[in-house]
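Anyone else keep sequences and structure tokens together like this?

Example one:
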Amino acid sequence: MTWHQIERAALAHALREAGPDAPTLCEGWRSRHLAAHVVVRETQPTAAAGIAVPALAARTERAIQQVAGPATDPEGYADLVSRVAAGPGRLNPMSWSRIGEGANLLEFFVHTEDVRRGTGPVEPLPLDQAHVDALWRRLVRSAPLLYRRAPVGVVLVVPGGPRRAVRRPTGEHGTVVVRGEVAELVLHAFGRGRAARVDVLGDPDDVAELERTTGGP
């Protein structure tokens, strides 16, 4: 299995364990809405455009609500999670290994934690080193885009491990260090700062600017 396939299986497991009405880290979404988001993103490209284009967000939200609607009961929810677990068909580029790794490795990891941490702090999932390395490689490629709204510089630091400057400061802002395990750095970069176990170090004003764009420390 590729890493994104492993992450897909982990997400499906977390969704099954949670049930249809569990809170998530995604504001306003229960677990069934998050599952519907995954299905819409992979199978309805026109409807999913609002994920990237804010002007189309209402269209995407309507599609998510439509897919999530039948999943309020156990049978409907089981069917929806099965669609998440199965993924798109072979002709869908999202199922291809290279595209899937780029599009889904971090996405599915974060959504698994959205479900797991939706009710509060939990112990991190145990990950072997090869898995951690795969997350780190993808994170350092994606981080410049993920932190693009931050006016401060950002350096990601893994205790006892690698570090990477992923954004330069703009204007008179300084640089902030975000320190934590790779999985926690991924969550921080994806705007789950309040749920991520990280230390954010720097000038207080710069730290506040970063928190504004990442959902907290």
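And example two:
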Amino acid sequence: MSSGSQIATYLAPESTPGETPDPATWDTLRLAGNTLTPNVSTEVSAEKRETRMQGGSIITSLDYSGDLAGEMSAGTFDKLLEAAFYGTWATDVLEIGADRHTFTIVKAFKDIGVYSTFKGVHIGAMQLDIPEEGKVTCSFTGMGLGYEDGETDPTAAGTVNPQTTTVAMGSATSVGDILVDGSTLAGEACISALSMSIDNTLQTQRCLGKAGPGALIATSANVSGSLTMAWSKAAWKQWKKMLTREAIGVYFPLTDAAGNSYTFDLPEIEIDGELPDGGNEDIVQVSLNYTAKNTPIKVTRVLV
């Protein structure tokens, strides 16, 4: 029998995709969930049998994927952010690029002594959600090149770093002034919810004689999301820009009580959304979807 509280996740950066460093340095991740799993695709035999029974199936492909879900906090997800952006932190600035980062990730069921190891894990996508009320959450979609499991702890021979202890961020306490085209809309058209996603559009290269991926190849970086804005004349002026495809810039900081911060800069986004409606007792808000274009988005961190 096993308890969910005894599931631990360890991450080690790889120098060569699919090869675990020896010895490895492991980070113990702070997660709310880890759905990494092998996925088996099969094809059932079409042969006719005298017994009328099916002839079973063959494996056509294997994939290794899932989401690492957490609550945003300083220093906890910096390596995963780097991999999701396909960039490299440079003087605490990270932007969309073409640098591949891969990991070996161990999903440990500690109370029963079973360890699942995913190798060559790429971050195919990420999601950041800032709700109207609640915790700022993030998730990272991993796609791996290989998998193995057993009863021997893969982290035992390496160095294991403990979990970070920074405070989780919340929508009421951590979100600073959100700027639209360089100006705050506070008092005119406040933003009440915001999300951002990056999809690296990973493609799987299949190779004959190999059930798992031969390679995982990033193609275009699709950055999109949504924002909810209080309806006002200022909001209407922004909403109208969808009719001309004029880009707007959005800038938003996340800061914890200790002064650690991550500031996200989306220089050019196109928005889409319907005119809002509301009942007699409703607050009128406009929901806008956006897509980033041309200029790479970036995030700047300050760690104290």
